[in-house]
Fold:
Amino acid sequence: MDSKGYTHDPPFDRGYLSVGAIHKLHYAQYGNRNGKPVIFLHGGPGGNTSFANTTYFNPDIYRVILYDQRGAGKSLPTACTEENTTHHLIEDIEALRKHLGISKWFMLFGGSWGATLALLYAQRYPERVGSMVLRGIFTARQPEINWTRMPDSGAARMWPAEYEKFLNFLPEEERRNPPESYCKYILNISTDEETKRKRYEAALE
Structure:
């Protein structure tokens, strides 16, 4: 391992798993196919995984599973919020475990929203979890949402330029409550497809 982490070969397996009538989860497996199974839970909601996420794990020891949550990354359909709730996301982890023939996760590795998802999955399926690594913990409580998204928040004071960029995608009259305003575009209330796409991307930054 160097300062940039572990180096992995291309995935030894990748594919799509249908979950319900609408969604297909994109997943990829890296490292030791007979190793300790660890699943990487990305942030967001609406983030994605990438090959760089494998660098945390020794490929000689771990069987690394990366997957994109419903509506995110390479999963299909893109940015779809129908049949896409926290309950669905928890059950998707369990469906993926069964699909890959894993009796028990050695580790849930979650960051930000992924940490929340790891905790929720472990509460529902404690017998399927051996350990957890949680980083950049975000539990989606209202004070945390306020701190990261609302005007005059901690994030706005610490990173004013970045926060201004976040606000600039919204019309002036919609900036008093950015989470509520962005929600309209993420839920496809806007009829302007280009504006909807740009504001959806901005909300995820």
Remarks:
- The longest strand covers residues 23-31.
- Residues 86-99 form the longest helix (14 residues).
- Residues 116 and 139 are 5 Å apart (CA to CA).
